[in-house]
Amino acid sequence: PVKLLVYSITGQRIRTLATGPVSAGTHTASWDGRDDSGRFVSSGPYFARLEYGGKTVSTRMLLLK
Fold first, then answer.
1. Which of 33, 34, 37, 59 ranks highest by number of CB atoms within 10 Å?
2. Would you say the pTM of this structure is higher than 0.85?
3. Strand, helix or coil for residue 1
4. What average pLDDT does the segment 35-59 reach?
5. Virtual CA dihedral for 13, 18, 20, 25, nearest 10 degrees?
6. Stretch 12-28: mean pLDDT, rounded?
7. 44/65 Cα distance (integer angstroms)
8. Cα(57)–Cα(60) distance, integer angstroms
């Protein structure tokens, strides 16, 4: 199983982009700047967190409007 989540700089979970089983290989995901409730979030830094197979990988993103 895989989870792809977006977090604010303060650690608040903003959006769940993907969850569930994913086949091996290269995949892409996009984020439209909305939270889980469908509201647009403000410009600024965010983190993308990928959880898979007991491992976690994070990267920093910058949302510009």
1. 33
2. yes
3. coil
4. 97
5. -130
6. 95
7. 9
8. 11
- Return d(Cα 54, Cα 3) in angstroms, integer: 11
At residue 28, the pLDDT reads 94
Residue-wise pLDDT tens digits, 22-34: 999 999 999 999 9
What tokens appear for 2 in the block? Answer: 């895989």
From the CB of residue 34, how many other CB atoms can be counted at a distance below 10 Å? 13
Type of residue at 61 = M
Helices (H) then strands (E): counts for the chain: 0, 4
Whole-number Å distance between alpha carbons of 29 and 47? 14
d(CA 44, CA 28): 22
Q: Which amino acid is at 35?
A: D
Which of the four pLDDT bands, split at 50, 70 and 90, describes residue 55? very high
